[in-house]
Amino acid sequence: MDDKEHEMVILLQKLNVSKPVAKALACLLSTDRITSREVERMSRLRQPEVSIAMNYLKENNWVDVEELKKKQGKGRPIKVYLLIVPMNEIIETIEKKVLSENKMLLENIEKLKSIS
After folding, report:
1. Assuming Cys at both sites, which of 16, 28, 104, 105 could form a disulfide with 83, CB separation 3.0 to 4.6 Å?
2. For the chain, which ranges sit under pLDDT 50?
3. Displacement of CA 58 from its chain's centroid (Å)
4. Based on the number of CB atoms within 10 Å of its own CB, is 25 exposed (0-12), middle (13-18) or buried (19 or more)?
């Protein structure tokens, strides 16, 4: 990952996005299609962290997963991930979540003020 991707990861983490999810997103933005092994290499995450991050991205309908059978030998199919939502939409979703959380915190502060 280059400096731009590292900065993106740091900024996403400051917005309460987990480190594995932030790194996975940065990797997905760097290419059209990417395998889980490539995400591991680029992000320096372990396989379970990549799996958890990709599951989170799938649950939010931000990525599509394709399973390719290996050409030779046995074993599990290779998972290939594709970002299906533009990054600006992902940022908007994160923004709405942060604003909602902050609004709730401010409401709780106001309640505390009123009862004290």
Report:
1. 28
2. none
3. 9
4. buried
